[in-house]
Amino acid sequence: MKEKVLMKGNEAFGETAIRCGCRFYFGYPITPQNELTEYMSANLKKAGGEFIQAESELAAVNMAYGAACSGGRVLISSSSPGIALMQEGLSFMCSVQVPLVVINVSRGGPGVGSIQPGQADYYQATRGGGNGDYHLIVYAPSSIQEASDTIVKAYDVAEKYRNPVMVLADGMLGQMMEPVSLPEMKEALAEEDIPKVKPWALVGHKDQRPHNVIKSLYLQTEQLEETINGYWGKYETAKKELPEYEAYNLDGAEVVMVAYGSTSRIVLEAIDLLAESGIKAGLIRPITLWPFPYNAFDKIGSSTKAVVSVELSKGQMLDDILIGSNGRWPAAVVSRTGGVLIYPQEVADRVKELLEGGKLNGKSV
Amino acid sequence: MSTHKIIIAGFGGQGVLLIGQLMAYAAMMEGKEVTWMPSYGPEMRGGTANCTVIVSEKKIASPLVTQATAVAAMNGPSLEKFKDLIVPGGDLFINTSIITGDHGKEGVNTHNVDCMGLAAELENTKVANMVMLGAIYQVTSVVSEDSLRAAMEKTFSGGKAKLVDINMKALYAWKG
Fold first, then answer.
1. Is A176's CB within 8 Å of B40's CB?
2. Nearest-CA distance B128 → chain A (Å)
3. What is the pTM for the complete model shown?
4. Is the domain covering B4-170 a CATH 3.40.920.10 domain?
């Protein structure tokens, strides 16, 4: 086994990106992701990269847009309100099909909100926080090791699909330390090799080929529609290729909880507590939030009476659970929000109350 | 080995996060599963700071703890905040340099640790937090002495390497 190091999530995210050949980072400080920006400021230059602390999140995302257009591997990161400010750039990058990895170490919202962990950016991440017809591909790891592995995958998926990929962490994953084995160092693509791998990149044509043009403004509406239809197929492919989930204890489960990211770990412990009171509970943990693993719900057996979304938001993921359930089970939400954490005992108590209180009598609450 | 769930809490600046970090490092070096979860935010600027360390042979689910096997309270507010989370038979470590009075709790093993006084005897009050780490280590055996030393060597590297010996010595300043 490769040697493990003990790292804060935020630092492991940055180190992994560098090892993926990321050589461009643009950011602006915000809690609880500051250690990531700090890590890149200290270490990216040593790897031959460029770190810029921009004057704002909007500037940072547009610097990333430029670096991505020229074929570099880019990382940007922020936390909820900062990610909100970056939405314009994300929409632009989706429209022109350039790859990017963006990490959201999310906190309580809306507005400036709180600095404690939150998951209320679910809609922003999965429903498009910017304008227009586009999707971000969104991963939600639940441990620092998984986050590191996910960032490696995110760069490949972003380049394969020519689309920004978001890694949705939260303050808990960003701040905690766990042992992690990091990937091997990968060199960045040499400038002369970029056109071979990324023929669309703007690296200078040297009069050897026609100009590459990257633009998102189309005054001819038919041209815009044609452009969107031209890339929309990849989203349909993504829905087939990318959905990932982990299922736990579904066999014979009376209730199935659905939770992502660090919350899913709290649910795992709640499952043990429910077992102590004679209630068999299972977990579906979506690993991709877009495309959402709706197929996971086909694994739920006839013993299950209800599906419960456990999230640090007011029932945002519940929408996808209702789509996935498609009326087969009543669905409910157990949530804390605003940066308030939920503990295993509270999850167990509230799920028990839902089951015993008859509140889920054939309908969703 | 059962799972250790240890909360270390105090003022910002008392070194509570370092106590947890060294414990987490040492546990990792023993090949154990470990999580270290700090409080962060305004409390780091003068209020209370705390971290939760879980050490287990098994994969760790929740990094959050409502049932602690041990709590180390470096100041009064931390004692009040966390002492009720200790499971029956668990351990409560009290920094008696700051916390006065009798705070024993039924069903819980209370250990009084005069962190500042014992550190002063070593002529280095900066190792007060290591005195507490030593008490936790001696009582709970959460990690071994060898791995604590290795964790310190990793943490205090370069110009700080000379600090390993005094910190190791501090681990044994408290004698239960």
1. no
2. 24
3. 0.96
4. yes
